[in-house]
Amino acid sequence: MPEISNALPSRIQKIYQIAPYEVLFQLHGPQGKQQLLISCHTRYNRILLTNRSYPTPSEPGNFVMLLRKYLEGGMLISAQQAGLDRWCTLQIRRRNELGDPEVIQLVAELMGNYANLLLVRDNTIIDAMKRIPPFENNKRMILPNAPFRPIPPQDKRNPFEDQTIDPARTLTQQFSGFSPFLSSEIEYRMSRGQTFASVMDEIEASSSLFIANRNGEPVFHCIRLESEGTYRSYPLFEGFDILYYHREEKERIKEISGDVYHTARRELKHQKQKLPRLLKEYDEALDCEKWKTYGDLLYIHQVGDTRGTSEIQLEDYETGSLVRIPLDPRLDGTRNAQRCYSRYHKYRKGQVYLAEQIRICEAEIAYFEGLIEQLEQADFAVAEGIREELVKGGYLSAKAGKKRKKKKQNDAPGFSETEYQGVRISYGRNNLQNEDLTFHHSRKSDIWFHTKDYHGSHVVVHDPDPNEDVIRFAAGLAAYYSKGRDSSSVPVNYCPVSQLKKIPGAKPGMVQLGNYRTIYIDPDPDLLRTEGIPIDQ
Questions:
Q1: Residue 2: helix, strand or coil by DSSP?
Q2: What pLDDT sits at residue 400?
């Protein structure tokens, strides 16, 4: 853990809970302000220094409140890994309630499903993020006031000290710190003439993280992944941020903004169930003339008592065919005729109403499909903007977001900005940002971009005459922040902002285009990443 050790000693200024199993420590030390993240997530557990921005829940959990009590203001003086095992001990020097100096340990155990964070003093557990009672593990109980027992070391050799290889056993079985993936990579290299010792020297000297894609899933290590063929190299902590941040961010957003996801999916499900019923009623309304014919025939044939009869067949004098007429068995012939005329007038008037309801329902479906797509690509600010939009639309109670800070009028716009070849480019990530950008922060001569067949981002190039490279970059940005990000030849419409018109009564971000052109683009995440656009790995 040399990178963390180089940042010590550091004072712990603030402690935040950014997710149920993640804690963020704000430090101040020799290198200025830094952030230490400890994640006990079952899949993404790790400890690293990060410069990412994280939101914090309005109410931290009990364990984090306990960490604040014992650790805030203390001095983090050391971070020591237990050999090559995936657990480490952080030493924090503080003063107790009496003002006497003492040292408290924060033990981070980062082992998959068993990942945990323990606060320990004098070999006694003060508390832990995940408590383990005796009936779950009678050999290593983790409860307040229980004795702390370190994880027993594995019966494996240190590959930096003993590099003798037993060909009858796998490298994972022989050496500590070896995963099956690392073993396969080293075996691949050894089969091509590289020595085991040289690979270990490379691991010891590495300060980079190499990431490759295997069947759609990332694989990674701190040495070149020669067995994978194609890989990318990043500085170590930056690589872990790229590897985990966007994946874990989506889970955090769902945890903090779960009501937003639930509301959007609930409304989409409701509208999709409603549409077939409206279409069926509309088809019946279009066939309203038959009910007028039924009423005419009942009068023409002077049908009398029909009580107890559910249908009757009468001859149509114009066609000579028999017409089957449904009846209400509680009514006589005259009242059944009146019932048919009443249904005829109802359906005839209902055609316009039902057509409008179908249009509204289809618009709602498209709207919520777009919201869900935005949520899938959202960061925290975007998710909060979608919450605000749902509150304004009456879909979500304002009470659900009352504890969140309201945006001040002098705050910076919510949309994002970048620069490409000296040209400023802005883009929205939700409907409110799109609307704000397009109609309040763009000039009439600016060029506006949006995917043709997908919900997505509004992109504005603040230049009336951009060159082809800028046009292709902006179109690629619009294509990436849409449902077409994984497609090829995505059609993107573009035109001056002066050619846009807001649709009266439409949802935020909906526009009507005048004269426009279309470009077909393949989204290029690598190009966007090099220009500083936040891209999922």
A1: helix
A2: 47
Bridge partners, residue 175, by sequence:
157
The tens digit of pLDDT for each residue in 118-174 reads: 999 999 999 999 999 888 877 889 999 999 998 887 788 889 888 888 888 889 988
How many other CB atoms are found less than 10 A from the CB of residue 416?
22
Q: What is the pLDDT of residue 305?
A: 86
What are the Cα distances from residue 290, in Å, to 296, 298, 344? 10, 12, 8
2: nearest Cα among 62, 79, 71, 59:
79
Whole-angstrom distance, CA of residue 39 vs CA of residue 244:
11
Name which of 213, 40, 186 is nearest 115 in CA terms. Answer: 40
Lowest mean pLDDT segment, chosen from 120-124, 144-148, 338-342, 522-526: 522-526
From residue 32, alpha-carbon distances to 9, 17, 27, 74 in Å are 11, 22, 8, 16
Residues 6+ apart with CB under 8 A from 531: 418, 420, 473
* Rg of the chain on CA atoms, in Å: 33
**What is the pLDDT, as a whole number, of residue 485?**
84
Nearest to 270 by CA among 407, 368, 190, 417: 368
- Give the burial class of 159: count Cβ atoms within 10 A of its Cβ; 0-12 exposed, 13-18 middle, 19 or more buried: buried
**Opening angle at CA 111, ends 93 and 176, nearest 5:** 95
End-to-end CA distance of the chain: 24
Q: Which of the 8 DSSP states describes residue 310?
A: S
Distance CA 351, CA 337 (A): 22
pTM: 0.60
Sign of torsion over alpha carbons 228, 231, 237, 242: negative
Q: Residue 23 burial (CB < 10 Å; 0-12/13-18/19+)? A: buried
pLDDT at 399 > cutoff 80: no
Kindly indicate the confidence band of residue 73, based on its pLDDT and cuts at 50, 70 and 90.
very high
Q: Which residues contact 462 (CB under 8 A, 6 or more apart)?
A: 423, 424, 425, 426, 442, 443, 446
DSSP string, 197-256: HHHHHHHHH--EEEEEEETTEEEEESS--TTTS--EEEEHHHHHHHHHHHHHHHHHHHHH
Buried b (16+ CB within 10 A) or exposed e, 273-290: ebbeebeebbeebeebee
The two tokens of residue 345 are 């007038």
In terms of Cβ atoms closer than 10 Å to its own Cβ (0-12, 13-18, 19+), residue 69 is exposed
Q: pLDDT for 186-217, tens place per residue?
A: 999 999 999 999 999 999 899 899 988 887 77
